[in-house]
Amino acid sequence: MDKKLTAVSADKPDISDWTSCKSTAQMLKKARIDQVETAFDRAAGMKPCPIGAKSACCKHCAMGPCRINAKDPYAKEGVCGATIDTIQSRNFARMVATGTAAHSSHGMNMLNLFKGVINGTIRDYTIKDTKKLIGVAQSLGIETEGRKVNAIAADVCKEMEKVFFAAEGEIPFAKRVPQKTLESWRQLDIVPRGAMLEVMELLQRTHAGMDQDYQHLSKQISRTALVDGWGGSMVATEISDILFGTPTPVHGEVDMGCLKEDHVNIIIHGHEPHLIESMVEAVNDRELVEMAESAGAKGINLVGMCCSGLEMLSRHGIPHAGNFMSTEAVLVTGAVDAFGVDVQCIQQGLVKVGKCYETKIFTTNHSCRIEGAEHIQFDDHTPRQCTDYIVKQAIDRFKNRSLKIEIPQNKSVGVHGFSHEYINYMLGGTFRGSYTPLNDNIINGRIRGVAGVVGCVNPRVKQDWLHIELVKELIKNDVLVLQTGCSQIALARAGLCTPEAAYFAGSGLREVCETVGMPPVLGMGACVDNTRILIAAAEMVKVGGLGESIADLPVAGAAPEWYSEKALAIGQYFVASGVYTVFGVTFPIIEETKFHKHIFKDTETQGLGKWGFTTDPHEMARLMIAHIDKKRAALGIDKARERTLANMADRREIKSA
């Protein structure tokens, strides 16, 4: 053990207050005995700055930092005269810009990979889903009839480049946006162009002496967020599906019980799927498997974490060890022989914890290195050089294990991999795939509405608890839940991602779930895959009967335990798309300021959605259900319809209509 680490004293808070995950709790207790510090300990020992938490501090120039009293925010201004609304909107803008940049960088990496596959310079990957390619091409207005796959792919690639580089016009995927929603964007002048331009424009507006009108700045905030949801993130999801296959439901195991003491255990954590796909090949390479067996192992056990893990789970059914706040705890098992990461949500503390348990941490992406970790650059042209090396290092560590291993014996099996395309097929069948059954069941009242519950976990609150309590309350009230990211793993560990979980749903939702054979919670993938939810919402509008824009739909969104700037960008693009979106834990705005009123109330009158906030999951559910009911009333479907069996005369009338 590294004796320089802070010893965890006995008077620390009870671990049961830190997490709802039994495996994580077990490992935190072991870490406490071993005197190994984790993010939970650091969170307990560090109080957030109350001024910074409310974005009442401006440090954008050397005249400051300027701090505003949250209790009386209009009593004081910054040195330059900046009001609390200017300061808050600038801080909010910078968070959205950074989150958008992170997702857009991911999308551009996928685009570069796609381009290399098309032109033949990258040979380790191929187009696996031509049907998805053709569907994407058609949605972009690209001719597909009678054309070769590579020619279609080249045109798709050229169109997608505009997502990042366009300096004028409208983002290509605006073609997927419901017409009324798009008209609202045009009236507000928030239709995005290219990601590079929008992020640059937003950041330069937050510079000292620049944009000082919170309403004007909020438009650019929305425009930038929209280039994330309908741009960079959408590109990442669509190309991942084209190259690696569009997910379809698979049974997958979740939790630390997926680790195997008699196997070489390798964990991959991050966000970019090309590292994962190469690792899947490497761990199944006969030569490497034989090398592991020669070292005394029964095989090589590949396990995922966070969003990389969700990519593996959705496409391959590969087990998943846990979400963001379990990444340090899983190392405490002593069973992890190699831990490879690429980008986003990577905690620096992994290196110290890994050192304590003799697990090497490998960084693989030039954008994310950690002091003390070994860097093995992943190259799309020669991916196996990186992944084979990690496997060999893991085998060497297995051969030289010296610490006692303790693996929690907790494991949940659920159904994952509900892409938009599969939901379309699941509801309508092979020859009539459609969202019509979903809309019909919302109209007739069996399903009250749809909620997207997504996002991270945060050590400032009890891990997973907010997600679990919120979703239980939603499905009990007949709200179908769509999930992505760490939230999906929280619900999977709680057993809510199985068809049997329909038992906990209200009678209407339960009836639909039992008829279709689906869970009341549909896991749709990684955090960039929130775009699947956007596409689903657009399809609900297209099918008809639930209004003309996304803002008309009886839907709501939530990120109960968010922590990152990416989450704020995601929330903002849902709000700008027309969805009421509620966050938990904290929100970086002082209540009752003009900027707060603007994004929590005024944007809804502009044809968009609006923000909401509460730290109580039951209140969060109440707010979301109240919004869904408000939208049902506006659509005239708030009263339950009597269920009648149609006779032949009724059917002829429907057919003739």
Question: How would you characterize this protein structure?
Answer:
It is built from 24 helices and 16 strands. It has 657 residues and is an alpha/beta fold. It folds into three domains: 71-244, Substrate Binding Domain Of Dnak, Chain:A, Domain 2; 256-399, Rossmann fold; 414-635, Rossmann fold (3-Layer(aba) Sandwich), CATH 3.40.50.2030. The strands form four sheets. The chain has a six-stranded parallel β-sheet with strand order 6-5-4-7-8-9, with helices on both faces. Helix 5 crosses helix 6. The radius of gyration is 25 Å and the shape is globular.
- Summed over residues and divided by their number, the pLDDT gives a mean of 94
- Name of the CATH architecture of the largest domain: 3-Layer(aba) Sandwich
Contiguous runs where pLDDT drops below 50 for at least 5 residues = 1-10, 641-647
Q: How big a fraction of the residues is strand?
A: 5-15%
Which sheet architecture does the biggest sheet show? Answer: 6 strands, parallel
Number of beta-strand segments: 16
Shape: globular
What CATH first level of the largest domain would be assigned? Alpha Beta
**Which fold does the CATH topology of the largest domain refer to?**
Rossmann fold
How many helical elements?
A: 24
Radius of gyration: 25 Å
Helix content: 40-55%
Lateral strand order in the biggest sheet: 6-5-4-7-8-9
In total, the number of domains comes to 3
